[in-house]
Amino acid sequence: MEAKNKGKIIIFLSTGVLTLGIISSNIKIGYGYTKNHKDFRNENLSDTTITEIIYNTTQEVNKGPMKSSGKVAYITIDDGPSKYTDRIIEILDKYNAKGTFFMIDRNMKSYPEQVKNIVESGNTAGFHSVSHDIHKLYKKNISAKEEFDINRKTFYDITGQESSLVRLPYGSKPYTPSESYKALVDANYKVWDWNVDTEDWKSDSNKILENVKMYSKNEDDIVVLIHEKKQTVESLDKVLKYLSEQGYELLPISQSQDPKNFWIGNLYK
Ligand SMILES: [Zn+2]
Questions:
Q1: C-alpha distances in angstroms, 79 versus 17, 50, 100, 104, 131?
Q2: In the predicted model, is pLDDT for residue 21 greater than 50?
Q3: What's the pLDDT tens digit per position in 70-125?
């Protein structure tokens, strides 16, 4: 088991012990307060030793939704929102999964209800520029940063929320000059690239699945790049089914986590 997984389990166990401790003490305080409290106070909690709690918690770790193979897949959806957004969210939900949508400014303005749906359904929102044009994005060192500032304002106007997650069109290498990248980091933007390119824009739905299989091989932490396209929506069910079967947890990117990108060089094992 990798060190990071051990860490996760230790944190989980500690939380479990703490929670049980709090529940246990609350029950003692509330004992006799209502019949329900009395009924709920069973011998399991009050007479359980710490060792037993840890053992039982470990059993819980090994089954059910908390089970973790340590494999994580971040499904990232570029170029929307679009008429496909709601359907993508539905398919993600079917697999109890959430994704991360990197959105283009004019599309947020054209599909504000879809922007709201992304947020309200618990998926993560990020930005994908105004121009989607490398000549405009890198005209000045500050140009890309300024485009994402515009994205932020548009997103805030629609949802009242903030995001600092961004994906550069065509990736942060080789097109992004170091000065442009630095300007984004200095402005606290978190730049995300990918390590599983489905090449969905030029593939049919079977080929998309094949690409996922090929590029995810031997990687435990994958950032999957898809776009809001017809063939992608057609393949998504199969792709998510495959990744679930391979033991990947399908998680949204969180605002607080460190980004993975070509500059940091932390996308591959
Ligand atoms: Zn794009």
A1: 44, 51, 12, 6, 11
A2: no
A3: 999 999 999 999 999 999 999 999 999 999 999 999 999 999 999 999 999 999 99
pLDDT at 23: 44
Question: How sure is the predictor about 67, in pLDDT bands with cuts at 50, 70 and 90?
Answer: low
What residue type is 115 in one-letter code? V
Count CB neighbours of 84 within 10 A.
20
Q: How far is the CA of 103 from the centre of ligand 1 (A)?
A: 8
Residue entry with tokens 């980091």:
185
- Separation of CA 165 and ligand 1 centre (Å): 14
Structure tokens belonging to residue 130: 């105004």
Task: Confirm if 175 and 205 have CB atoms less than 8 A apart.
Answer: no
DSSP state of 58: H
CA of 197 to the centre of ligand 1 (A): 12
Q: Dihedral of CA 225/228/229/235: which sign?
A: positive
Please give the backbone phi and psi of residue 34, each rounded to the nearest 5 degrees, phi first.
-135, 165
Q: Can you give the residue ranges of every domain in the chain? A: 3-66, 71-250
Q: Ligand 1 centre and the CA of 269: distance in Å?
A: 25
| CATH 3.20.20.370 is right for the domain spanning 71-250 | yes
Distance 128 CA to ligand 1 centre (A): 7
Strands (E), the chain: 71-80, 99-103, 124-127, 165-166, 190-191, 196-197, 221-227, 248-250
> To the nearest whole percent, how much of the chain has pLDDT over 70?
75
What distance in angstroms lies between residue 164's CA and the mean position of ligand 1's atoms? 17
pLDDT at residue number 242? 98
Q: What is the DSSP letter of 220?
A: S
Q: CA-based diameter of the chain, in Å?
A: 72
